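Quick one: structure for this chain?
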Amino acid sequence: MHTTSLKNVGHQNRIFGMKCNPNDENMVATAGWDRSLKIYDIRANKVAASIGGPLLVGDSLDILNDYIITGSNRNRDVMQIYSISQ
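Got it. Here's what it folds into:
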C-alpha cells in the first residue's frame, strides 16, 4: 500500500497564513508565496483541495462559517472569498 505524507503534497514556497476551521477541527487552510490555497483534511492525512490564486505575504487568511477569506499582495483583486462547500 502506497501512502503520501502531507509534506510531499504541500506548498512549493513559504507559507504566511494558516487557519484552523473553528467549525471543523479536522480542517486546516494554508496559503503563501506559491499562489495557492491548500485545504488539509487531518483525518485523511492529505490535501483535500488546492486552489490557485492568493499570494499571501502576511497574516491575511481567515475562515468564517462557509468561507475562506484571503488578502493578496497584488494590485487588483486583493481580497478573495472562497466557499468551503462548493
